TrEMBL record:
PANTHER family: CYCLIC DI-GMP PHOSPHODIESTERASE PDED-RELATED (PTHR33121:SF79), CYCLIC DI-GMP PHOSPHODIESTERASE PDEF (PTHR33121)
Gene Ontology terms, MF aspect: cyclic-guanylate-specific phosphodiesterase activity
Endpoints of the signal sequence: none
Superkingdom of this protein's organism: Bacteria
Name this protein carries in UniProt: EAL domain protein
SMART domains cross-referenced by the UniProt entry: EAL
Pfam families tied to this protein: EAL
Occurrences of domain EAL (ranges): 5-255
Length: 257
């Protein structure tokens, strides 16, 4: 496992050096109006030496605590802020580790992006994984409070997958709670997942948080989630992450015309 992690880190290091880092965009749709998009999530991708696109799930755990992980967070944020500046009607979420809060380049990218376009802050959602938020909870709460005053929203990602202390959950004031996909896949036929997801949704409602169900892949699961009042749905049933989303293709066609 150690050798595998070293290989992964070397691959990501090479991608960073050659600027082979990009965002893939996945739609998040309102559960009661699925023909519209509430916002997009910008998911980081890298290219390996063969040009193959590598999704974050294949490398993010290996680099989470490393300098490479901080740089990847910086690149994702820089690309996300630029995308928001170029598309004034877009709302976008960007993933980050809580470890990047004190990283100078990351903070500079955030502040520079908000100075460049005053509307960016209110269209930016920062997604922090449950596991990384628990590493430095006091730092996260202070960071969130400062940026929420400027209009930035925060999502607690992969909720239910980690070990959130409910004492901290009460203090965090996340705007959005994203329920981990392990509770969503097959939920229409899984009584255990139905109970767990309902409980997580109740927690979100109590703390006035918007709910997003991740990994929605089937019509029957989407229908069940709509019926129990989940606010938004995200997953392959509504669209796979794409480095060339429809709105970007339309812009390119407009420029060429």
């Amino acid at each position: 496992m150690s050798a595998r992690d070293r290989s992964v880190i070397e691959m990501v290091d090479a991608a960073v050096r050659h600027k082979q880092v990009m965002l893939a965009y996945q739609p998040v749709v309102p559960a009661q109006n699925v023909d519209h998009v509430a916002f997009y999530e910008g998911l980081v991708r890298i290219l390996d030496e063969t040009g193959r696109i590598i999704p974050a799930r294949e490398f993010i755990d290996a680099i989470e605590t490393t300098e490479t992980g901080r740089i990847v967070d910086c690149l994702a944020l820089e690309k996300g802020m630029l995308t928001l500046a170029e598309h004034s009607d877009l709302r976008l979420s960007i993933n980050m580790s809580a470890r990047s809060i004190g990283y100078p380049r990351w903070m500079q990218a955030l502040e520079r992006g908000m100075r460049r376009d005053p509307t960016v802050a209110e269209r930016l959602i920062l997604e922090i994984t449950e596991s990384s938020a628990m590493v430095v909870p006091e730092l996260v709460t202070g960071f969130m409070e400062k940026l929420q005053h400027k209009g930035v929203s925060f999502a607690l990602d992969n909720f239910g997958a980690g070990y959130t202390s409910f004492r901290y959950l009460k203090q965090f004031y996340f705007d959005i709670l994203k329920i981990d996909g392990q509770f969503i896949r097959g939920i229409a036929r899984d009584p255990d997942n139905q109970v767990l997801t309902s409980a997580l949704a109740t927690i979100a409602k109590q703390f006035d948080m918007f709910t997003v169900a991740e990994s929605v892949e089937r019509a029957e699961d989407a229908a069940y989630l709509q019926a129990i009042g989940i606010d938004c749905l995200q997953g392959y049933f509504y669209g796979a992450p794409s480095v060339r989303p429809a709105w970007l293709v339309r812009d390119d066609r407009r420029v060429r015309a």
